[in-house]
Design a protein that fits this description.
With 142 residues, the chain is mainly beta. The protein is built from three helices and eleven strands. 24% of the residues are buried.
């Protein structure tokens, strides 16, 4: 299977909340639209330093990690960003990896937005078609 890319819009979640509270105008929300590599091996949204600066996301912490090639690296965890794909959205704390050029759309955002890779057509698609269905793992309702 070849690489699958998806156009996503990333927004500074603090700016979105500030707009909803009437503190800033909609046009003041820092956001960017990018072509992200859909990476089912990546745990979450991975952005580069340029995107972090463009969105104005501040550092929240660092964490050691092991990359797919077995090298060890320290990643930055930054403030929350909204991820928008078509009619779906979710919020997560992106990881910033030094030297990363591409934006990676990982498993947590994919699962949260009920998305999967269609391996035959090599596109991102809804698990349940156009209808987004949220699911809670391990939760039972009486």
């Amino acid at each position: 299977m070849g690489a699958v890319y998806a156009e996503i819009t990333l927004k500074n979640a603090f700016d979105v909340a500030s707009h909803k509270r009437g503190l800033i105008k909609e046009e003041q929300i820092r956001q960017t639209t990018v072509q992200a590599l859909v990476d089912t091996g990546a745990p979450t949204l991975i952005i580069n330093e340029a995107t972090r600066r463009e969105l104005g996301l501040e550092l929240c912490g660092v964490r050691p990690t092991r990359m797919a090639n077995e090298t060890r690296e320290t990643i930055k965890i930054v403030e929350a960003a909204e991820v928008h794909w078509k009619n779906r959205e979710m919020t997560c704390q992106p990881w910033v990896i030094s030297g990363s050029g591409e934006i990676l759309l990982g498993v947590i955002p994919l699962e949260n937005m009920d998305l999967m890779v269609d391996p035959i057509n090599q596109v991102l698609t809804g698990v349940h078609g156009e209808e987004e269905i949220g699911h809670l793992v391990g939760v039972r309702f009486a």
